[in-house]
Amino acid sequence: MNLVFFDIECASVHKNVAKICAFGYVVCDEQFNIIKREDILINPKGGFHLTDRRGEKGLELPYDYAEFKKHPPFPAVYPFIKELLEDKNNLVFGHAILNDVKYLDLETRRFKLPPFDFEFLDSQIMYMTHVGDFSRQFGLEYITANLNVEFTPHRAADDAYATMKIVEELCRLRGVDAPSLARDLGIRRGRIREHEVVRPDSSAFDAYVTEREAARARRSRNRTKFYIYLSRRKRKKSGSLLGCVFTFSRNIEDDIDVSIPFVGAIYERGGTYSQKLESCTVYVCEQNDSTVRTQNAVKREGLRIIDINGLKELLSD
């Protein structure tokens, strides 16, 4: 079995159109000996409108854009790409591969070509599963920096090579070969067939998503209980905290076993609580809290910021 790693660059991507301008790939054997490495340039039949993931900032590809016009359009290279990816003797990998698979599908639709039919694995999901962290997306540059792999970002063949090196390192660390790596990590392959794309995933990621949704539901229930409690509080006309308006960080507010008793003690001493940061005079957060609400609180001039211990001291007066 051979291993195929590929990456795609597009001149532009819109909702239903992805104009591919480069298809880079690396073919190697199961010992990661490279058989072939190639960057196939493609005439995108359109202009270059490059943005980042948020669609906000232009990106620069490490190519001479005029060079793309000298190459044939996607239909000319489609037979080779289709044969490479659909060969049953090839195990296909990519990094954050789902988008690239969708780009291939969109090009078959644009040029009215038969759809792709192959299975694939994602080195990003493999890495996330290996380190046990699904809270963020790990890009090629972040991972390869730790592996001392030199490559040119956004050059398709180089991105494919970097993907290969990630998989090779994961195999080394886990003591398995590439065909066994997915099984070792509990990962299911993705697939494209008849224009339908199924994403690759892992049992560990499924467990993470389940826990994340459960935590979100708990936070929602706790916030409802907190707001109901808050709406029933009546401020006293005297006390050591008269005139003080408190706001808690989200983490403290959502922990109702902590937040509700504190709010009760604040009102008993003449203080009040506001859900609006701009209305408070005292902001309470945990040390090293970097959430958005706390970052906004730090930017406010004249706002007193204290931690839980500071709040306890105020309430002890």
Structure explained in plain terms:
The protein is built from twelve helices and 13 strands. It is of the alpha/beta class. It has two domains: 2-199, Ribonuclease H-like superfamily/Ribonuclease H (Nucleotidyltransferase, domain 5, 2-Layer Sandwich), CATH 3.30.420; 233-316, Rossmann fold, CATH 3.40.50.10190. α4 (123-131) runs parallel beside α6 and α5 packs across α6. The longest helix is centred in the C-terminal third of the chain and has 29 residues, at 203-231. The chain has helices at 65-68, 74-86, 97-110, 123-131, 140-147, 156-174, 178-185, 203-231, 250-254, 256-268, 292-299, 308-316; strands at 2-13, 18-28, 34-41, 90-94, 118-122, 187-188, 190-193, 196-198, 201-202, 245-248, 272-273, 282-284, 304-306. The strands form three sheets. Strands 3-2-1-4-5-7-8 form a seven-stranded mixed beta sheet, with helices on both faces. A four-stranded parallel beta sheet has the order 11-10-12-13, with helices on both faces. A two-stranded antiparallel sheet has the order 6-9. A hairpin with a 4-residue loop joins β1 and β2.
